[in-house]
Structure formats: structure tokens, C-alpha cells
Specification:
WD repeats lie at residues 136-170, 329-351. This protein is mainly β. The chain has helices at 67-72, 358-367, 372-376, 382-388; strands at residues 5-9, 17-23, 40-42, 48-52, 57-62, 78-81, 86-92, 112-117, 122-126, 131-136, 143-148, 155-160, 164-169, 178-181, 187-192, 198-203, 208-213, 218-224, 230-236, 243-249, 253-260, 265-271, 284-289, 295-300, 304-308, 313-318, 325-330, 336-341, 346-350, 396-398. The chain has one domain (2-398): YVTN repeat-like/Quinoprotein amine dehydrogenase (Methylamine Dehydrogenase, Chain H), CATH 2.130.10.10. Helix content is 7%, strand content 43%.
């Protein structure tokens, strides 16, 4: 029922704020544990929005939100009582429009929502009814991240503080998961390449990225930093040719790095404002590639920023003053991004609709199925090769905050 939350449809400044969700019961004290919105997700078709609103409660809402829905009592709203702190959400199955239809799973699965809990369990819910389908057990610590493979199957990858990743086949009841071991630290985040062949994962105190084969369930390689870093998040671009990694350190602030996952080449680094005196306290908490165009959103404690990688410029700098932002997620059709905060709130922001260039669309189509090594073997002019392998992206840049932007 809508008595549990407040839906506000924005009609005033800031101009890029679309709507806001507020829990009815605010935390008694800022920083109170349990009230945080650790995860927000849109369903693959964009018709649902899942909100981990704190205190073990997940809300399932129809999208788009309207003021009429709020007044009518939100009949489409469903409340999932997980009875544990919810760290991660994932809708599945997810189907990539770029995967060959011959390789898509031929069965029509009902839409599911997986929730990763503080006690290490994973609950799987039926979205249409809001009923609990089953619970997966095996992790011995909180499940920090969940991702379904984007090939239309019911393969779910989970990352946990027990220092493992597990690969579950939800279509085969009772099947034991494949367990990926190796990290010596908590596994915070994971991401799956668009062709469902590679898993990237990062740990909290480990200065490297782990790449795993989703076909053989084996470790492939590290992407290693030269300096000690605390890893925060990672995400593949829509063609799988780029891997974005967020990290931070007490002396240098946050870094956002783009890597080539095929060659382990470091392509570019984006750094926090070098003028700010308290840059070490400004942590980069999450990042996400847009499913439309080459936009990369990243959320730190000061703002939400969206970088147009192809044109090398910021196209959005908003959500100022929302300290403690911890997550963000794009709508699958573009145009909207949701952010969640430590105080349990969610805001929806308008994303500039940019038309991708024809050459970028050609690059995405080619790179989805062709590795960097295969591209480099083609008899093409140097500039074209650099463009196809993203070697034309500036090697380093600094994102100045709004206060120090000249």
C-alpha cells in the first residue's frame, strides 16, 4: 500500500528531476543502519522498478510512475518482505538484443526478481504475483551483488562477502552452483559481458579486477593497478569492448578507469576534482554504462555525473547535496536514471537523449562479436583501428566539481 511510501512527481527545479520516492518512516538519525537503499533496478523491458527501501523491504512498482497512481493507492505496487537487509537486486531473465536469436534460450520464462540478503541467502520472487518462488543457500556471508546473464537464460551470478562468486542455473531445480574461488577479500561487485562469456568482479581491498570465464567457470586474468586501491564497482559497455572500474584511495580520491578486457590494456583514467580539499572523503560508490549510446554514469558523495565517452564531455551533473548516494541504474530504453541513497530515498533523473553516431553504431555491431586481437589483425588504417579498439579515448582527464568548474 502507498501508505508505506511517498511518491512525488517533480514539477519544479531542478529541471532534470522527474520523480522521487520517499519511505514513510525516515531514519531517526542520519547514518542509522538498516534504512539504506543499497540497490535499485529496472526490469529488462522497463515496465517495473524494484526498490530496496531498507529494513528488509523491497517495493515493486510499475513504470512509469504517475501522480494518478499515487492518489489511486498504487494498486500495481507489491511489497516483498525479505526479513533481512537487502544488498542486491536483479531481474531475470535478461535478453540482449544483440545476441543471435539462434543462441537465445527458446523457453519463455516468467519474470523473476532475485534479492541478495545479509544472511547469505538469495530469494527469488515471481514479479507478476509478488510471491516467493524459492530460496538459494550456500553463501556464508552477505550477498553484495547479483546479475543475470544477458542471453535469455536463467543463469544468475552472485558475489558475496564470503570471498566467492557462485553461478546458479535457476532453470534446473536442485542443481548445485559453480563456485569461483580465489579472492582473499570481500567480493563487492560483478558484471557480465554482453555476450555472456566473461564475468568481471572486484573486491573491497584488492587492487585488481578478476576476469572469469562463464563458459569454463575458470579464472582468466587480472587487471592490475600499480598503486593500492579500494575497488568499488565495475561494468561492461554495451559491446563488451570496454570495462569501467571504480576505485578510491584515501590520498588520491576516486578513479574511474576504462580497460580493454581482451588485452588487459589500460585505456583511460578519469579522476576526481583535484582542487577540492576533501577529495579523499568523496567516494565513488557506483557506476553504470547506459544501454543506449556510450554514456557512463557514476555516483559519488557530491553528485551524479554522466560522461559521454564518445564526445568526451559531461552531459549531466546533478543530484547535488545528496550525501551518501550509493547506487544508480539506467532505464533499459534510456532517458532515465535512478539513484538510491543511504537515507532510503530514490530519485529519478532525466538523461539527455543523444543520438549515437553512425560510426559508433557500426563499432558496437562489430565489437560485440570480434575481439581486440581480431580487430588488430584486420588490414585497416591506423585511425580506424584506434577507433574500433577505443584507443582514441583521451588517456586521462579530471572531472572538476561544479564549484571549481571554470
Amino acid at each position: 500500500m502507498c501508505s508505506m511510501l511517498e511518491v512525488q512527481i517533480a514539477s519544479m527545479k531542478p529541471h532534470d528531476l522527474i520523480a522521487e520516492l520517499k519511505p514513510a518512516h525516515h531514519p531517526r538519525l542520519y547514518g542509522t543502519a538498516g534504512c539504506e537503499t543499497w540497490s535499485v533496478r529496472f526490469s529488462p523491458d522497463g515496465s517495473y522498478f524494484a526498490w530496496s527501501m531498507g529494513y528488509g523491504i523491497v517495493k515493486l512498482l510499475s513504470w512509469p510512475l504517475t501522480s494518478k497512481d499515487a492518489e489511486a493507492g498504487c494498486s500495481e505496487e507489491k511489497t516483498l518482505n525479505c526479513r533481512q537487509m537487502v544488498w542486491a537486486l536483479a531481474f531475470g531473465p535478461c535478453q540482449s538484443i544483440r545476441v543471435d536469436v539462434l543462441h537465445q534460450n527458446g523457453h519463455d520464462h516468467e519474470l523473476l526478481l532475485a534479492t541478495g540478503l545479509n544472511n547469505g541467502a538469495i530469494q527469488v520472487w515471481v514479479v507478476s504475483t509478488g510471491n516467493l518462488r524459492f530460496t538459494l543457500t550456500g553463501h556464508e556471508a552477505p550477498v553484495r551483488d547479483l546479475v543475470f546473464t544477458p542471453n535469455g537464460s536463467l543463469t544468475l551470478v552472485s558475489a558475496s562477502r564470503d570471498k566467492t562468486l557462485r553461478i546458479w542455473d535457476l532453470a534446473k531445480k536442485g542443481t548445485s552452483p559453480h563456485v569461483l574461488r580465489g579472492p582473499n577479500y570481500w567480493v563487492f561487485r560483478c558484471s557480465i559481458s554482453p555476450d555472456s562469456s566473461v564475468i568481471a568482479s572486484v573486491c573491497n581491498l584488492d587492487s585488481k579486477v578478476y576476469l572469469w570465464s562463464l563458459r569454463s567457470y575458470t579464472f582468466m586474468r587480472h587487471l592490475t593497478y600499480d598503486h593500492e586501491r579500494t575497488m568499488a564497482s565495475c561494468d561492461f559497455s554495451q559491446d563488451g569492448a570496454l570495462l569501467a572500474v571504480a576505485s578510491y584511495h584515501s590520498s588520491t580520491g576516486w578513479w574511474l578507469d576504462l580497460w580493454d578486457p581482451y588485452t588487459a590494456a589500460h585505456l583511460t583514467r578519469v579522476e576526481d576534482c583535484e582542487v577540492c580539499a576533501y577529495r579523499s572523503d568523496n567516494l565513488l560508490t557506483s557506476l553504470s554504462f547506459s544501454p543506449v549510446g556510450l554514456l557512463l554514469a557514476f555516483k559519488d558523495y557530491r553528485a551524479l555525473q554522466i560522461w559521454d565517452v564518445e564526445r568526451d564531455k559531461l552531459v549531466a551533473d546533478t543530484d547535488h547535496g545528496r550525501t551518501g548516494g550509493v547506487c544508480c541504474a539506467f532505464h533499459p530504453h534510456g532517458g532515465v536514471i535512478a539513484t538510491g541513497c543511504r537515507d532510503g530515498q530514490v530519485k529519478f533523473w532525466r538523461v539527455p537523449r543523444l543520438v549515437p553516431s553512425l560510426r559508433h553504431l557500426c563499432r558496437v555491431a562489430l565489437r560485440f562479436s570480434v575481439s581486440t586481437y581480431q580487430v588488430e589483425a584486420l588490414p585497416l588504417p591506423k585511425k580506424i583501428l584506434e577507433y574500433l579498439t577505443y584507443r582514441d579515448v583521451p588517456k586521462q582527464k579530471i572531472i572538476y566539481c561544479k564549484e571549481h568548474c571554470s
